[in-house]
Amino acid sequence: MKIVIAGAGEVGTYLAKMLSDENQDIIVIDTDDQKLANLENYNLLTYHGSATSFETLKDVGVSDVDLFIAVTPYEARNILACTLAKSHGARKTVARIDNDRYLNKEQKAFFIQRGVDHLIYPEYLAAQEIINSIKRPWVRNWFEMVDGELIVVGVKLRSNSIFIGKRLREVSGITQYLYVAAIKRNRETIIPGGDDIIMENDIAFIATTRDHINDVAKACGKKQHNIHKIIVMGGSEIAEQLCKLVGDDYNIKIFEPDNNRCQELADLLPDCHIINGDARDSELITDEGIKDYDMFIALGDSSETNILGCLMAKENGIEKTVAQVETLQYFNEAEALNIGTIINKKLLASSRIFQLMLDSDPDNAKSLALTDAEVAELIVKEGSKVTRGDIRDLHLSRNMNIAGLVRDGKGQLVTGDTRLRSGDHVVVFSLSGSLSKIEKMFN
Amino acid sequence: MSRISFHSINHVMVLRVLGWLLLIESAFMVLPLLTSLYYEELAPSIAFGISTAATLVTGCLMTLGFKPFSQNATMRKREGLLLTTSIWIIFSIFGMLPYMLTGMSLTDSFFETISGFTTTGASVIDVDSTYRGILMWRALTQWIGGLGIILFTLAVLPMLNYKGGIALFNAEMTGITHERLRPRVSQTAKDLWMVYVVLTVLMVAMLAYPMGWFDAVCCSLTTVSTGGFSTRSEGFMYWHSTYIYAVVVLFMFLGGINFAMIYNVVRGKFKRLLNSDVFKWYSFIAFGVAVIVMVTHKTTDAGNSLYKRFIYSLYDTVSALSSTGATLVNNGERGDFLLTLLMLLMFFGGMAGSTSGGAKLDRLIVMLKNMKNELYRVLHPNAVTAVRIDGKSMSHLITSKIIAFLSIYVLVMLVVAIILSFMGMGLTESVFTSLSAISSVGITADNISFAALDDVAKWLLSFEMLVGRLELFTVLVIFTRSFWIKD
């Protein structure tokens, strides 16, 4: 698949590296040679030029491009670049935007008419992800497909879970309603087989159907406690999105050190409490009654500060914390420190784009962002390899796992005897770098 | 005492890829084997049979033997550099087997092989009395080495189509920046090889009638790769045909052009080539110097026809410029002026990204433009200047890397020349031979044979050829402390 990425910023660079490792043909366009130089050692082509120039687009051969991704820092430029690329013959285009005013359903047709097939607003995705963890605080990651018929949850297993020390084979013996699709242990994601043993402190990715989600929580030893009061550290755009979406359902208090931004937020979010101050100031947060809160969400600019903020909140007795960590290197450290849910805009944006590549409808699937693995929703095509036998006999690669499927609008789990049919929606877990193999199996 | 700790290098992966490459070499050896069988030459048939089998078995052992342990397939810079250098040496070690098995000494065989792979074309063989199978193998070594052993592998081995492949690509390709044509490195490699194959086939087609198939194939393989091995001791002079000379000039000239640019021309982008600064310089030097040669040197063979004399002069000039090293005149008869002029051409060679050797014209141009800037800055110390190639400015980092490259190039050349002169060679001869090896030209100042050299000199020149072909840094960095040891 030929993919052009306009803009070698954080998201563009991350996408380029990931997709290049996935064996795709990548061309990255940027006007800054220094940024392109960072990609020198990757298996891709860089092009120095502006994404909104006809000459550039012609030179990179945009006419036979399958996917055009515009992720420059400027929204208007991204939209224009997509329009130009589409008019030159790009098959599918996606632009990153930086506010929510274009996300309405009614405006979709307008943008498609102008050649922008999909809009990505990472802050909105991040807010969605946070809302998931507010609704289900016992879950670290939440992924649902086809209107929530099938659900994959990432759960940290403690000693009170019934799974600890059991082989996966035994687990499926006790509980027919769930399927362990992947395990994250010691910084590494494992696609397990029947003989692998589940250990304490593993993060298990469990697929289940909607009716059994409470049974899964019980089996994992988790209690569902409801969240009412939330502290948000940093009045960033994500915080703004979050409050717009669920501000009136919860009691949210935002700490923001910048006075002007506080004024702005107070205007925008009448339902929330805005506090002008730093959430790391222990006197201030004690005064503001941190002990009464159920959840702490750190959305500041610096990953380090967010992680530390969450640790402080934990010390103050808040059980559920969420941190925005943009530095990928800190991911594992943050997980080891038991920061509950970790939000990363890059990963969220790229997993959305990943869905686009697999030709499934990205608006239907909620994405699950992991550093070294991918979760994708695929639609089984007529006559593809996976339909030729029971799953047991397909000899699937050790790097992938089919977690479940939705057939005729009904979610079900997958066993060795399941036979896939065309039209099935399937959730696939795969380690990074094995996408092309998976694509082949399903097309 | 502090403990010495080494950088972790993925040796298993390096060995495995080496194994793969040996399998490819053994496939190449089948061609001379078939040639020997076709011409019913017994000794080389056996030699190539054994060599092919030995290479094949070693390759299999290395790929299969290491497979179970190679969990991690990462290749970074160190692995790329190590692999690139070692593959050129190991290819030569296995490539010399046919020579050894037909009765040559170890030193001569290795020298001949590495001279072939590096497209130097310095020969110790008496080509008139050797077998056709051997001649075919010599030609083939140059052809493989011309564009690069690893570049070929990148085109055919999917396992290298990842990040590691880029490290290899950068380590082997000549030139300042390593231009990529297409997003995946394997596609780039395929495109470059396609250009290469098409050029070779074209040349064979143009020469097959006047020269006969065997000679046409061998000579085309060595000319497009700008190597210069011939099937006759007189070289192309054997045929006494101006038509052949003209064809050879054409393909030597093409061999000295950046292959990425030829590819663009094939794709209909003529302007890229015509607007290229380096190409302008390349053409200007080739024709300009040819005129000087024509005026100052009365080539006896050419007679009085102006057209013939021009072709002859052009032949000599382009041969030196593209580092082919096929001459129509005895270098000893040229006179010092022309010899010095040709040395200058040999030093810089053709364009980066071509099959030619030398320090590359691109670097000469950057050096000269930088020199101009520095002179300007003497008068205007605060001036901000940029070196521009094709309208794009080069960063200071690249400029300083180029200056460093040229300094090291001269240094290596002089050190080898000094050692050669210590061993009893004359001043002109030692400098010329050393330059000839590092620039992969493969001629001597007085047309004396390389066979007459000392064994030590042959090994030294073999090393110098390798350093020159891989453009210094790739080989030399392996001998630095920081490559191996963490400080």
Q: Report, as a whole number of angstroms, the end-to-end distance of chain A.
A: 14 Å
Strand proportion of chain A? 15-25%
Mean pLDDT of chain B: 84
Question: Helical percent range of chain B?
Answer: 55-70%
Output the helix-strand order of chain B: EHHHHHHHHHHHHHHHHHEEHHHHHE
Name of the top-level CATH class of the domain at 2-120 in chain A = Alpha Beta
Uncertain ranges of chain B: none
Describe the protein in words:
The complex is a heterodimer of chains A (443) and B (487). With 443 residues, chain A is α/β, with parallel strands linked by helices. Helices cover 31% and strands 25% of the residues of chain A. Among the domains of chain A are: 2-120, Rossmann fold (3-Layer(aba) Sandwich); 229-318, NAD(P)-binding Rossmann-like Domain (Rossmann fold); 356-442, Regulator of K+ conductance, C-terminal domain (Alpha-Beta Plaits, 2-Layer Sandwich). Chain A has 15 helices and 21 strands. In chain A, the strands form four sheets. Chain A has a six-stranded parallel beta sheet, with helices on both faces. In chain A, strands 14-13-12-15-16-17 form a six-stranded parallel beta sheet, with helices on both faces. Chain A has a five-stranded antiparallel beta sheet with strand order 7-8-11-9-10. The longest helix of chain A is centred in the N-terminal third of the chain and has 14 residues, at 122-135. The model of chain A has no long low-confidence stretch (mean pLDDT 83). By secondary structure, chain B is mostly helical. Helix content of chain B is 65%, strand content 2%. In chain B, the strands form two sheets. Chain B has a two-stranded antiparallel sheet with strand order 1-4. A two-stranded antiparallel sheet of chain B has the order 2-3. In chain B, helix 5 crosses helix 6 (132-147), helix 5 runs parallel beside helix 20 (455-469) and helix 17 (361-379) crosses helix 18. The A-B interface holds A 2, 20-21, 23-27, 33, 41-45 and B 77, 161-163, 165-167, 170, 180-185, 187, 395.
